[in-house]
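Ligand: magnesium ion. Inputs:
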Amino acid sequence: MSMLKIEGLHVEVEGKAILKGIDLAIAPGEVHAIMGPNGSGKSTLSHVLAGREGYDVTAGTVTLDGEDLLELDPEDRAAKGVFLAFQYPVEIPGVSNVYFLKAAVNAVRRARGQDELDAVAFMKYARQKAETVKLPKDLMKRSVNSGFSGGEKKRNEIFQMAALEPRLAILDETDSGLDIDALRTVSEGVNALRSPERSMLVITHYQRLLDYIVPDRIHVLLDGRIVKSGDKSLAKELEAEGYAELRAGA
Amino acid sequence: MSEQTEGLLSRLGDPPAGGPAWLDGLRERARTHLAEEGFPGKRRERWRFTSVKDVVETPFARPDAPSSARAWVDERLADDGAWRVVETDGRVELDGAPPEGVSVRRIADVLAEEPAALESALGAAVAGEEFAALNAALFEDGLLVDVAPGAQLARPVHLVHVACPAEAPRAAYPRLLVRMGTGSEATLLESFLTRPGGDARHLTNAVAEVLVGANAGLTHVRLTEGTDDAVQLAYLGVRLQRDARFDSRVVALGGGLCRLELTLTFDGPGAEARLDGAYHVDNSEHVDHQLTVIHRAPRCTSRVRYRGLLDGQGHAVFNAIGVVERDAAGSSAHQENKNLLLSDEATVDTKPQLEIDCDDVTASHGSTVGALDAQQLFYLRSRGVPEARARDILTYAFVSAVLDGIQPEAIAQRARTAILARLPHGDAIREALG
Ligand SMILES: Nc1ncnc2c1ncn2[C@@H]1O[C@H](COP(=O)(O)OP(=O)(O)OP(=O)(O)O)[C@@H](O)[C@H]1O
Ligand SMILES: [Mg+2]
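Predicted complex:
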């Protein structure tokens, strides 16, 4: 059975149709990639999955492990295991990164019926997770994403992902803004999180990322529709040919 | 006038005696000013939203030698790594040696021993008007902080002002003068606390003057923990020489009436000022910030960022004027005031403004009264934090952001603890984050 199942999803923003009938099924343990030109609706899809306000779902369904996702608040989706690594991570001056994560991890643990971690246990846990993405120590203490470089923000997203241990991880252009070394570390961090119980949806513009995080399937999103799906070789094809031919066909 | 002579002005009849002639002159000018002008009323633009009528009518007595608050302070505040000086109702106690590179002396001692040392400095950054004149006329002691040229203080200096209310109204007139030598660096913390005692009103009429020499940098954290009967009418004047830096973080946590007038002047080119502040009002508290930034020299940068949290029937006033004079080419002057309303009955009067007399300037000013940031809220919720808790955390962050980057961490931590102690669900926020 699919872990994530999207059927006939139509989404509007302020009366404008953005997603125009998305069908997508991801089985447990699978990694799917979505590629597509700017403005095709990739981030819109990721936001709708995570439960952001401001999107009208006019048709279709989304289920996670058979449960209707669209009726849940964002925090309840997180508790069920949805995690979105933001394309543009949000800065929160005034709250330290590590304390923020403690609030998040314990909220999710509570919702999942697990014991909360006390300050000492959490610090140990966080340090171990930070190690996996080589997050510099001072970024743990500084305010959430505040004044972080583009690459540091992306690394921080994967740090949070590692700590929250999601069922479904959606990575929205996590590779943008990373230099080649950072890309390798972050990809290794992501790969370390691949498991038979965890699915991933990886949004990217670049084949480069998919050389590191090798996907089971690649989908091309164009003007709110998936116009082509294939195996990992599709990325190379797209990189060589661009979207022109697909556009002409659509 | 007749009512006023019953109150504050009646104190002017008995000025501290035995000072040097120049000081008598200063006090005399202050007295004349007050006798002629009286205290400001609502007709004055800068006092439109803050009434001092009942303060002026209150017969505040000068405290006769209050018992030292040092022990009370040490019990209340954990060691934050700073060198601590306690001032009890304006009387300074020095304990132990200050960090290397700084000389810290009681103003009373300096006036007695080498009065000429202060002649050109006292009153250099704060004009002797209104309540600053009251302080000039009546102050007896205070702190003189001289940071040696090139010195980098290894520890911050923490000046703790303690107000000691009694059975009858009391007033204190603390005075602070900080001189940063060329190329020196320091962090100075000022805390304003109230030691529980009598139920009568208490006035703290504080004047601080900060003179920052060429290429010197001062970080100044100023924290007021207000109480209902505490009145604070304070002045902070800052003058910056060439390439100097002033990093100011003001945290004003309520109080019956808490007002700060901050005036900063760029006297030399290439200097920088960061003026950040946060205030919180609840119940019927009243907090007022009046900022004036004067760009007199070219290529200086000022950035004013104040944030307010308004609850209960609290009232906050924020007024900032950025003045760019004719010769201040290449100036950058920015002013921003953001407010978060937690209650329908709370109010804020906010007015950041610019007076620009020069073409070559980058400037901006704006104020908002609004709700929490929707993107931040979604970010927290997407990480599993329930909405109500996420709102609490963001409310706290809105205020505590003013402390970002302050070193050492223990100092920021103390201010954060004070903020949490006042916020709705502060315990839960501390529990979630701590
Ligand atoms: N709040 C909004 N109001 C109006 N239009 C919006 C809003 N959010 C998104 N859109 C529009 O929806 C379309 C899809 O945007 P989306 O961010 O999903 O694209 P994307 O595929 O992620 O692009 P990119 O590769 O640049 O990140 C764009 O045309 C965008 O302008
Ligand atoms: Mg996008």
